[in-house]
Amino acid sequence: MTKTSPAPDQLRPAGRATRAAIEAAARVLFADRGFEGASVRAIAAEAGVDPALVIRHFGSKEALFLRTVDTSLGIGSVIEGPLETVGRRLVAYFLDPALPGLRKRFVALAQAAHHDQVREEMVRHTAETYVAPLVPRLTGEHRELRAALAVAQLAGLLNLLFVQEDPIVSGADPETVIAIYGDAIQRLLTPESAA
Amino acid sequence: MTKTSPAPDQLRPAGRATRAAIEAAARVLFADRGFEGASVRAIAAEAGVDPALVIRHFGSKEALFLRTVDTSLGIGSVIEGPLETVGRRLVAYFLDPALPGLRKRFVALAQAAHHDQVREEMVRHTAETYVAPLVPRLTGEHRELRAALAVAQLAGLLNLLFVQEDPIVSGADPETVIAIYGDAIQRLLTPESAA
DNA sequence: GTCTATAACCAGATAGAC
DNA sequence: GTCTATCTGGTTATAGAC
């Protein structure tokens, strides 16, 4: 097993600075080039340190990724809004071109999802951040399942949009996509409010 | 640029045999270990040839992947069935544990989707095999968009199920998932037949 | 010419000695 | 903290065998 990296507080000033530099570089490069595209060497170079130090501090590339990349994509506030309109608001949030780096961060996450450690953390995080807050607000049967499926459905759109870059959806009128797909998600969450 | 590999018909017997051996090995290993997990070297070893030959014959690992892995997951016949029940039938198809290798093939595809050549081919193939046959059978507005979104929604489930291996959905009663999610897909395709 | 094999190159992740 | 070494992986150069 990998030796656990020292906790930040035990490090001397130089160590803390190095660690911070690596984290900053990793944040930039992972977002910019994705998980595979950002090499440990490149991150080290960007931070001005030796590649081996990266591993020494964080244990592995995977662990570094988990420490630096925000696995939530910032939709917490969207989910907390009015339940009756959450479907459309979620879709609208991701179709908003004013959110720079969102695409790249999603792609980085999707790539990294194939690594066990990252995948497990993502599942845990999704359950905790997306599904759990929704469940108590739902009514009817299979509340947890429906919340999980709604999140999955949203992920399907993001995949089409950001990974596949499908021309049909990318080229469609955003309002139309929001209406059609948003309502579809909404019906999973609040079936009784069907239009 | 890479020199184009020779067309199969121009090869001499020895070449054709080698090519076939590589293809067979690639099919097995890609399905078994995914795109990243199956190294060119491992494929070559399995085929009993030199790694360099793999590239010589197929140009690149990506190209080999495209030649050997079935990008359709065999849902053609499902889509061709009755339109009014296609949503549930699609979900049921993928929840059927009797289809061995389905999960692994999907994971391999998902991994390889991050490579440009493969991604483009997948988009093209999806449009041609899934979306195109559906569109003329739909009625109402935004038929192409709705078909694309339905496919995306299905992909979301597959991702949750096969990549994330989410315990909520994996542990849920298949019939319930089929009903809830299948109907959600169905409503994108035939909104008028809402239950 | 058309294969095939050997070696080599370059990049990546990580372990271990200092 | 740093550097070097090792291992694995994709790919290319090149020269020999058919």
From TrEMBL, chains A, B:
Gene3D superfamilies: Tetracycline Repressor, domain 2 (1.10.357.10). InterPro entries: Homeodomain-like_sf, HTH-type_TetR-like_transc_reg, HTH_TetR, Tet_transcr_reg_TetR-rel_C_sf, TetR_C_16. Residues 39-58 bind DNA. PROSITE patterns: HTH_TETR_2. The keyword Chaperone does not apply. Keywords: DNA-binding. SUPFAM superfamilies: Homeodomain-like, Tetracyclin repressor-like, C-terminal domain. Residues 16-76 form the HTH tetR-type domain. It comes from the Bacteria. The keyword DNA-binding applies. This is TetR family transcriptional regulator. It comes from Nocardioides ginsengisoli.
